[in-house]
């Protein structure tokens, strides 16, 4: 957008047109050339409305053709300050929490971490229960969150470098009948029921598919999991986390645990943790290859 001053302008006596913003022309780039276009073309190309254009023009006029105006939110200066006694109670509670250092990031950061807590809301709930018994004044969640994030170098999440070596989810695709196609001869042929067992690695975004014909019990799926573990255990003392649904006949049973025990004992794996997704919430990245 370029602001221009027309050579001639006809102003009606008593009208408000002279007080409006200046004229603006619009351009589109085509092979390193600027081509003048109409406002409708410009607006539809960028998928914006007139309000976005007016806002940019107002800011350009306000700060001297500079769009980087400072953020004016929460700058009115009328915020309520937290009572020093309440703020000191918040700090004492946060300091009393047991914190640890990350082994792999100790040389790169001074941040400490809290394990076993899902969110700051959980810490605030413990803070409320603790000081309610002492009949002290209690800060709300907003004040507690501000002190926790602005005055402490603490995180609730484990950095990626401290995650397990492999985090994967595995699942079984619905029955696929092969051969498959639009040729009419396929409609009269006997087909095989093929099962596709997929293991999706979250860290590398790669997927291993094990297609087979036959049964789909724990013996078949367990052998696929064992083959996958043999393939990825190039590094000794690896920590592995598996995710899956709650199918008892396929992975939620003692046979699969026996396979994990075998892998830990003979394949050089340090630990295997299997987490079962909540029923009704089992859709995950492993479903992408099924589609």
Automatic annotation (TrEMBL):
<protein>
    <recommendedName>
        <fullName>DUF7869 domain-containing protein</fullName>
    </recommendedName>
</protein>
<feature type="domain" description="DUF7869">
    <location>
        <begin position="222"/>
        <end position="287"/>
    </location>
</feature>
<dbReference type="Pfam" id="PF25273">
    <property type="entry name" value="DUF7869"/>
</dbReference>
<dbReference type="InterPro" id="IPR057191">
    <property type="entry name" value="DUF7869"/>
</dbReference>
